[in-house]
Specification:
- It is built from 42 helices and 13 strands.
- The protein has 918 residues and is an alpha/beta fold.
- The strands form four sheets. The chain has a five-stranded parallel β-sheet with strand order 5-6-7-4-8, with helices on both faces.
- A hairpin with a 2-residue loop joins β9 and β10.
- The protein starts with 24 loop residues before the first helix and ends with a helix.
- Keywords: DNA-binding, Transcription, Transcription regulation.
- GO terms for molecular function: ADP binding; DNA binding.
- Pfam families: BTAD, Trans_reg_C.
Length: 918
């Protein structure tokens, strides 16, 4: 048997190596139908009935071929055979087949008397389920024929495995599972009988009797029937037993009535509860101040406490010494007055002895470090420790950790509603959403905001949102009685050493949502204190640290007047790194960063280019925020220079919002500094942005505003861009003369390319291509190749067009330039169509990239190219579907030219559909 399940239907569709299942619903139904008959032919008629749920259209067979073709790009092994299709995969590699085999093996093992082995086989079978069968497949026929029988088999296998566990003496371990089962299927008498038996075996007689009464009530109310023989026997077995006489401690604090959300972490805690005889489990729940760690711990203890027959202990740690906490815990366990030893080591010894024979849940709230927690861990089999801390307590042996974040937007609104009053929140939904956002969805902040509203019935939510909108007063507003966000943050700050306090304050100079250690140094101590949260490694391999916005406001409040000084101290490093990254993206002199991969040195330089782009992608939000930070602190020179350095990266990644914001801020800074050239450089970049967005009038206006600010070569560069916008060939000629006289190879090469593209002259474009090669500028080389490819395509020189387009793609992929790659793929798609072998794959790949980058104009063009390829292949339905999507994009963009082209192709598609009688 192959070890790994590659395909799955027991839950959402599962593909090999975690690949995402196909997006369209009918593609998923088709794949499911093939997976339910692995290695066997499924007739076309059967597939059409399943994919269209019994109502296939007249064109179903031809459209099915399109779906199969699309599916083959996602799933290997789909074969066309006479009469239908099959998926060439071993049945054992499909989870439903493996599930049925394991169930069969479990039953054989039970018949042979191997109860433990039988339980293990059934447990392995049930472990293959990831949710409801065919969870993301929309086909009633498939669900009736396959999902319903599989679900019934799962339930029978679960009941059989539970019965085996009960026979093996594992009653306490299956109580939670059985409660969930009767909750989901309240009319299954066998599940109720097993729950009652499990509770009896776990010594929980009163709960078992309550379960019988609940089962009887459900059966009488829903079916009008009294319990059957199996359920009555389980009840009789409980009545014949003895009530446990030992008293157990239960120190769980009162649960919070308005507790909201947190289903995922509560499920994680519930699933971690150890078996009755298993090794103790230690869980750490950590996160930022105010995120609700204690509330989650209390809710978890209230929910799972009944599993722990030895009781539930609760202790608040904070800065308390372990010895003092041990004294309280020992008394809770029944240590008599005067029996608690004086020495801490003796207390630890006695605690371990007293917990060794008990199955305990110990909740340790607000721990400060590992050394404080270790002596308090219970040793009894099946025990569990739940620790809350601002630190992940990484050094705590054999522990598992969960970082608790903020609430989801909906959970935040729900919490605000239960505290402030649901009617008030419903009456002002927009203001409620603003309050939740200004609180950063932090439970403590939301609770404070809700409490203030509850005690101020005359306030509107809009009024409170306005008060919170002033970032300088927000922490003042988030205070109600002894609830205060500032106070919670101060506890963490006060516990830091002098160096860490200084580091935390300096971070308050930044408005970025995350930061890497290269800016201020090692940030891990602040993460350990819960004031920062690790965001893992970014694309360039750096550990990134984020923080809640209210934590940032607290740090800024502590820093106060020192902000300019701190920013001035790091501005040089930030500018230097951004400048060097820009130089790698746009090498400007011969020999600087040559990247054509022909020598070992050049391969290394290609790697540097990729790493530079990766570093900029990782630091985009940080650097964009720094432009604003520098400007607000009066560091105008740093602000405009950084905005200028970032422009090529924004263009490469289609980060237009960042580009607009940074340019506007940089322009204001350059004007404040009286730096005319800086203003001109940013206006030139703004014109590039307007041109890319299809707004030539705005681009020309920006360039004309820049012209009076500069002279010489920079004036020529601006004039060249104006020529690109207006198509003025005379402007190109003037610029070319200036660049040649000054020996500016970059300007000369750019002008030759622009002139060649405008005039359609192959010689000029090839000369520009040679110029980019000499400059060591692979991105310029790639653009020249694209212009040449388009020129060859228009002249029907198809082999030359393909060679240029493929060279362009190799450069894009070597550099990791995804968006330029998409435009190259579109040209390749057009070339393939001109060669008489249309293929929608290249345009589909381009579409995926455009959608990833949010480039709607590119996506519209890609949709047109995909539809045209389908039309050339006579796949009319697929073409119509693509054209409808393209038309929608062009309508939203206001792109009349694209809309006209889409409607023209749509008319042709409708004509062909009429010819085919569909």
């Amino acid at each position: 048997m192959n070890d790994a399940v590659a395909f799955g239907v027991l839950g959402p569709l599962l593909l090999p190596d975690g690949a995402p299942p196909p997006g369209p619903a009918k593609h998923r139904a088709l794949l499911a139908a093939l997976l339910l008959s692995p290695g066997r032919m499924v007739p076309i008629e059967r597939l059409m009935a399943l994919v269209w749920d019994g109502e296939p259209p007249a064109s179903a067979e031809s459209v099915l071929r399109v779906y199969v073709s699309a599916l083959r790009k996602v799933v290997a092994g789909i074969q066309t055979v006479p009469g239908g299709y099959l998926l060439a995969v071993e049945p054992e590699r499909v989870d439903w087949h493996r599930f049925e085999r394991l169930v069969e093996r479990g039953r054989r093992a039970r018949e042979a008397g191997s109860l433990a082995q039988a339980a293990d086989q059934l447990r392995a079978a049930l472990g293959l389920w990831r949710g409801s069968a065919l969870a993301d497949v929309d086909s009633g026929q498939l669900r009736r024929a396959h999902a319903v029988p599989l679900e019934e088999l799962r339930l029978r296998a679960l009941e059989e495995r539970v019965e085996l566990d009960l026979l093996l003496g594992r009653g306490g371990e299956v109580v939670g599972e059985l409660r969930a089962l009767v909750g989901a299927y309240p009319l299954r008498e066998r599940a109720w009988a097993q729950l009652i038996t499990a509770l009896r075996l776990a010594g929980r007689r009163s709960e078992a009797l309550d379960a019988y009464q609940e089962a009887r009530r459900v059966l009488v109310d829903e079916l009008g029937l009294e319990p059957g023989a199996e359920l009555r026997q389980a009840h009789a077995d409980v009545l014949a037993g003895q009530e446990p006489s030992a008293r157990t401690p239960n120190e769980t604090p009162p649960d919070i009535a308005d507790f909201t959300g947190r289903a995922e972490v509560l499920r994680w805690i519930r699933e971690a509860v150890p078996m009755a005889g298993g090794a103790p489990v230690h869980l750490v729940l950590h996160g930022a101040p105010g995120c609700g760690k204690s509330a989650v711990a209390v809710r978890a203890a209230a929910s799972a406490g009944g599993e722990f027959t030895g009781g539930v202990l609760f202790a608040t740690l904070r800065e308390r010494a372990p010895g003092a906490v041990l004294e309280d815990l020992l008394r809770s366990l029944g240590c008599p007055e005067g029996g608690v030893p004086a020495a801490v080591t003796e207390r630890i010894r006695l605690y371990r002895s007293m917990t060794a024979s008990r199955r305990l849940l110990v909740v340790l709230d607000d721990a400060s470090g590992e050394a404080q927690v270790r002596p308090l861990l219970p040793t009894g089999a099946g025990s569990m420790t739940l620790v809350t801390s601002r630190s992940p307590l990484s050094g705590l042996e054999a522990s598992r950790a969960w970082e608790l974040g903020v609430l989801s937007p909906q959970e935040a609104l729900d919490l605000l509603a239960v505290v402030a009053g649901r009617q008030r929140v419903t009456a002002e939904p927009e203001a409620a959403a603003r309050i939740a956002l200004l609180c950063g969805h932090l439970p403590l902040a939301l609770r404070v905001a809700g409490s203030r509203l509850a005690r101020k019935p005359g306030w509107t939510l809009e009024h409170l949102a306005g008060r919170l909108g002033d970032s300088r007063r927000r922490l003042d507003e988030l205070s109600a009685g002894d609830l205060a966000v500032r106070g919670s943050l101060a506890l963490g700050y006060d516990g830091l050493g002098d160096r860490e306090r200084s580091l935390f304050r300096r971070l308050g100079a930044l408005s970025a949502p995350d930061v890497a250690p290269w800016v201020f140094g090692d940030l891990e101590p602040l993460a350990e204190a819960g004031l920062l949260q690790s965001r893992g490694l970014d694309e360039s391999g750096q550990e990134r640290y984020g923080w809640h916005d209210l934590t940032r406001l607290y740090a800024a409040e502590l820093l106060a007047a020192e902000r300019r000084e701190v920013l001035a101290g790091v501005a040089g490093e930030i500018l230097d790194r951004a400048r060097r990254a820009r130089q790698l993206l746009l090498p400007a002199e011969p020999g600087s960063g040559r990247t054509v991969a022909r020598t070992e040195e050049q391969v290394l330089e290609t790697t540097l280019l990729r790493e530079s782009a990766g570093w900029l992608r990782s630091e985009r939000r940080f650097l964009s925020a720094c432009v604003t930070d520098f400007h607000d602190a009066g560091l105008h020179e740093a602000a405009w220079r950084l905005a200028f350095y970032l422009a090529p990266f924004y263009e490469l990644g289609a980060h237009h919002d960042n580009w607009h914001q940074s340019t506007a801020t940089g322009l204001d800074a350059a004007r404040s500094a009286g730096h005319r050239q800086g203003e001109a450089l940013l206006l030139r970049g703004l014109a590039d942005l307007h041109r890319i967005e299809g707004n030539p009038e705005a681009a020309a206006a920006a360039l004309r505003a820049a012209q009076p600010l500069v002279e010489g070569l920079e004036l020529a560069r601006i004039t060249l861009r104006l020529g690109l916008v207006t198509g003025d060939e005379r402007a190109y000629a003037r610029c070319l003369a200036v660049f040649e006289q000054a020996g500016d190879q970059r300007g000369r090469t750019d002008t030759l390319r622009a002139l060649g593209a405008l005039k359609g002259e192959r010689g000029l474009l090839e000369e520009s291509l040679a110029g980019y090669l000499a400059l060591g500028d692979p991105r310029g080389e790639a653009e020249a190749l694209l212009d040449l490819a388009n020129l060859h395509l228009s002249a029907r020189r198809l082999p030359e067009a393909r060679e240029c387009a493929e060279r362009r793609l190799r450069i894009n992929r070597r550099l990791g330039d995804r968006l330029p790659e998409a435009y190259g793929l579109l040209v390749l798609a057009r070339i393939a169509g001109a060669e008489g072998r249309p293929d929608p794959r290249a345009a589909s790949a381009a579409l995926e990239i455009f959608q990833t980058f949010g480039d709607r104009k590119g996506a519209g063009q890609a949709l047109l190219a995909v539809a045209e390829a389908h039309l050339d292949l006579d796949e009319v339905d697929a073409a119509v579907e693509g054209l409808e999507r393209a038309r929608g994009e062009f309508v939203l963009l206001g792109d009349q030219r694209g809309l006209t082209e889409a409607e023209g192709l749509a008319r042709e598609a409708r004509r062909r559909r009429g010819l085919y009688g569909s």
